[in-house]
Amino acid sequence: MKSSLTAVIYLQPDQIFLRIIELPSLKVINDVRSGLFDISEDDKTANYGENMAAITDNIEGFKELISDYHIDNIKFYGAYEDMDSVTASYVGDQLKVRTGLQIEWLNINQLMAQSMSYIVDQLPEFRELSKHNLYILSIGLDNSTLAFFHHGNFETSWEIDLGGAQIHRLVNQLRQTTTNPTEIIQDYIGSKLGYLASELTQHKKTTMIVQNASSLSKRYIGKHQKIGEIDRKKFQETFNHLLIPQDQYMYNNDLDLASARDEYTLPTYLVITRVSKLIDLTKLYVTNLSVMDGISNGIATNNDNSRATVNNMIRTSADNIAQRYGIDFKHAEFVKKYALQFFDELRPIHRLSNHYRLLLEVAAKVDDIGNFINQQGHYRHSAYILEANPLIGLSDEDNLIIAEVARYHSTESPTINQSHYRHLDDDIQLPVAKLAAILRLVDSLDDSRQQKISRVQLKLKNGRLIVKATSSDDLVLESWSFSQKSQLFNDVFGIKPVLKEKGGR
C-alpha cells in the first residue's frame, strides 16, 4: 500500500498540538506543540474564546508546516472540556472562519477511551502489569478518569470530578484565607473519592499506571521509554516537600519545580496519594503515552485495533450499567442477538453505517434499565438514567441516540408531538427512529420474557417484511405484541411487518 501523510491537530484548553503521521505505518514524522495558554481563573477551565488569537496564530503556523509536507488530509479535534454546547458552537464557528478548519469536539469519555486504548494496544508491559489488578489514572485539567483492568481486560471506569487546573484554582482561592490550604484540599479530594471507596477497596495488591503527569514522566521515565516505575519512597519525600509553603520549596532543584505548569505538580501528587490509599497499591508507574497518542492513532487514522479496543470498552460499560440496574440478561441477550440480525439483513432499507450497529447493540443491552425505578413508563426512566450515565468511548451525540432509542423502544413513538424527539438535531432524528423501530419489533418477539423463539428468518416481499419465527411453544402473546408494535416500523420504512410462526422440533 502506498504511504501517505496525515496531519492531526488537537486543541486542549492550555495548549495546541500538531502531529504528522505516515500511513499505514502510523510512524510519527513530526511533533509540534504550542506554548501554554492562559487557563481561566474562574470556575471554568476552558478559555478558548479569550485565547482565540493565540490559538489561530499557532494554527496558521501549523498550516505552513503542513504545506511544506504537501499534506491535504488534516484532522482537527478539540477537548470539549468544561463547555456548554452553545459555547462550543461559537468557538467552532470562529475557528472555521479564521482558519478554514472544522473542529470536531471530543468529550472526556472519548478522550480517555482513546488514550487508554493506546496504552492497552501499544504498551509492551501492559499485559504483564494487568495480569491481576491494574488501575489506570488519567489526570485531566478539569476531570480525571480511573479505569480498572483485570486479567488484561477492561472492567469498569469512573469519571472523577478532580483535575489539575481545578485543584490549582482551589489552592489559590484558599491561600487567600488560610496559610496552609493543603489539608483542606486533601479533605476535598477525599470527599470526591469517597463514593468510590467501597468499590476500590475490594481488590488487593493492585498496580496503578498514571497518565498525563508531566512532572512524574520527566523524573521517572528514561529516554526512548514509554513507562517508568515510581520509587514510592522518593514519591513520598517529594510529596512532603510539596506540602511545605511555596516560598520554601520554590528553589529545590531536585523537584524541578521550574518546569512548565509546575503549579499542577502538587495537584498531581495529591490525587495520586489519595487514590493510592484506597486501592491497596503495591506498585506505581507513570507513562508518557498521551491523549494525543490515542487520538492520532485511533480516531484520526481509523485504526482497526484501536476501534476494536474502544468498542469493547463501550460494550463492557453497557453491561456494567445493565447489571447495576438489574436487567433480565436472558431477555437482553435475545433482543441483542436478533436486533443485530435485523440490522444486518435490512441494510438495503435502513442504509445506516456499522457505527449505528454498535449503538443498536448497546441500546438492546440497556433499554430496560428503567424497570429498576418503575415498570410503568420504564422507557422514560431508561432514557434519563442513560442521559445521566454517559458511556465511555461514545460522543455526546451517540449517548443521546442510545437514550432516545431506549425511550422509544416500547410504547411512545418518535413523532413531532414528542418534545424530546422534536428537539433532536435534524441529522439524528431519522437514525433514532430507524433504530427504535427495529428494536421495538425485536423486543415484541420476546414479550413473554421466556425466549420461546429459537430462530428468525427475514424476507422482504411485495412491500412487506416477512418475519418467520421458529418455536416449539405457542406465540400468542408475542403475536399480539408484534401486531401492536409493528406500526412504527411501517411508519418509518413504509414496509409492513408480518409475523409467521413455524413449529420447532
Automatic annotation (TrEMBL):
GO molecular function: pyrophosphatase activity
Annotated coiled-coil segments of the chain: none
Pfam hit, one: Ppx-GppA_III
Domain Ppx/GppA phosphatase C-terminal: 316-464
Superkingdom as given in the UniProt entry: Bacteria
Family: Belongs to the GppA/Ppx family.
Name of the protein in question: Exopolyphosphatase
Organism: Limosilactobacillus fastidiosus
